Amino acid sequence: MKFTELKLDEQVLEAISYMGFENATPIQEKAIPLILDNKDLIACAQTGTGKTGAFVLPILHKLVGKQDNNIDTLIIVPTRELAIQIEQQIQGLSYFVSVGSKSVYGGGSGKDFDLERDALKNGTDIIVATPGKLISHLKMGYVNFKHVKHLILDEADRMLDMGFIDDLTKIISYLPKKHQTLLFSATMAPSIEKLAQKILHQPEKISLAVAKPAAGVKQSIYLVHDEQKVKVLAHIIKERKDFDSIIVFTSTKNKVSNIVRALGRAGLPAKGISSNLEQDQREEVLRGFRSKRIRILVATDVMSRGIDIKEINMVVNYDVPHEAADYVHRVGRTARANTKGEAITLVNPTDMFRMRKIETLIESSVPKLQPPEEFGEGPKWEEGKPKGKRPFNKNKSSFKGNKRKFHPKKK
Fold first, then answer.
1. CATH superfamily label, 3-208
2. Confidence band of 337 (pLDDT split at 50, 70, 90)
């Protein structure tokens, strides 16, 4: 469906055309009419499907011709990176619409705090905020949410995973009872259903392509031992000389600098990004990666959701994510908006169980590869349950499967 068929204001359509977009994505096609019709909405769609545009475009449509400076829309997101990215999209899409916006997140300077306070006290059309920083402002008593008409929770499942449920409840208590609520999530977990029942009024539901990588992603696995990982990673990158945008994901921030140094020794300059960096440092790294000045970015899962960086050629999972759904979010950084991309995961024997859970989630078997011969043989793929110590059987006072009984000491 073309955007011109969605009954959006001409000024919004002009901005969309100026940015080079013509056809709406499935989530945009389904969500925009419902939002324009003032329905509460719970929308579930994988990352990279255009969720931000699905709620920003109809909100901009509603703001056309707005005369006052009151806060109309509050968008709550889990991370400062996502807050910045959404505000940038608002600024781009509102090029022909007179709309003001301000992002509110932690890690800024005193000057940033003053600008946030001014927007929250005196008003601007759209506020994009992380829960913790917004709570800090609310406690000071000057935030004016009396005129909020739209509440949007983006990456709601992530916010619940990060323990923000109490903060969300408190923030919502400051809003007018009558407002439109839009909840966007990558997964439809029971906790999301429970939250939706609590804060939404007779919501419409949209669920698209839940927990599956985009069709354009070529997925594969290298079966490796830990000591082979760096060599295989360097080999993978060196083979793809025409790739100018590569993300390497690791599950812990402590590994980021180690991987960056190892790639440097292999003649592959890379930059790392994690919560260890200050906000201005993180933004500088992201700018370099977006502009292709930085070819290889090593990141933790803080980057796996919500960061809109176009034309990423390849994602490499240096280790398997702890949660199966996070695999989809990591892989979703490539092959965005119907493009092609590659996703490779390095799997050691310990992580095979997690990888099998991922295959169950995505309903697909990912091709398994051995390392190049010069690096030695990798482990064999094992089906079934993971090996290791068996659980203690409390009922029988023995170790399950062990013939030797456990006998307590005599008194």
1. P-loop containing nucleotide triphosphate hydrolases (3.40.50.300)
2. low
